């Protein structure tokens, strides 16, 4: 984790974070590639402990009013997709996707989880 990615339990953006994302290739990237680049950098800046990282994202997104749908928050569900695939993170990941869907779509992020038999059980609850 690089220092300066979060403080007081919330994510904050600094010049290093922006520079790591917006290099000379940024302008040619399409939406999903840009989202993935942001997500990868979040993984660099946030703690490696998945639950701790989700806690920081949760505190950050809590600053938005519920129902505020912002395409700029697509990288929250993408973070879950990228870093929450371990079976031991199933409950954390499903709960996070449910929370983040209030602010942005998790349509793409949920797809890799659908191969798990528990997904159908989760939806039926």
Describe it.
The protein is built from seven helices and two strands. It is mainly alpha-helical and 125 residues long. Helix 2 crosses helix 4 and helix 3 runs parallel beside helix 5.
Task: Give me some keywords for this one.
125 residues; mainly alpha; 7 helices; 2 strands; globular
Secondary structure layout:
Layout: E1 6-7, E2 10-11, H1 15-21, H2 31-45, H3 50-61, H4 75-83, H5 90-100, H6 107-110, H7 117-124
Antiparallel strand pairs: 1-2
Helix pairs in contact: 2-4, 3-5, 4-5
- In one word, what is the shape? globular
State the oligomer. Answer: single chain
Q: What radius of gyration results from the CA coordinates?
A: 15 Å
The H-and-E topology, N to C, reads as: EEHHHHHHH
Number of strands: 2
Distance between the termini: 37 Å
Percent in strands: under 5%
Structural class: mainly alpha
The major beta sheet can be summarized as: 2 strands, antiparallel
Give the uncertain stretches in residue-range form.
Answer: 1-5
**Helical segment tally?**
7
- Binned, the helix content reads 40-55%
Strand order of the largest sheet: 1-2
Mean pLDDT: 82
């Amino acid at each position: 984790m690089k220092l300066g990615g979060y403080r007081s339990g919330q994510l904050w953006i600094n010049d290093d974070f922006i520079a790591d994302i917006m290099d000379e290739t940024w302008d040619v990237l399409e939406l999903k590639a840009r989202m993935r680049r942001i997500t990868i950098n979040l993984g660099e800046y946030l703690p490696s402990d998945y639950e701790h990282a989700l806690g920081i994202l949760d505190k950050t997104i809590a600053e938005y009013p519920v129902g505020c749908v912002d395409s700029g928050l697509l990288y929250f569900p993408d973070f879950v997709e990228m870093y929450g695939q371990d079976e031991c993170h199933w409950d954390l990941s499903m709960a996070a996707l449910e929370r983040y869907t209030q602010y942005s779509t998790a349509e793409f992020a949920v797809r890799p989880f659908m191969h798990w038999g528990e997904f159908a059980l989760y939806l039926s609850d």
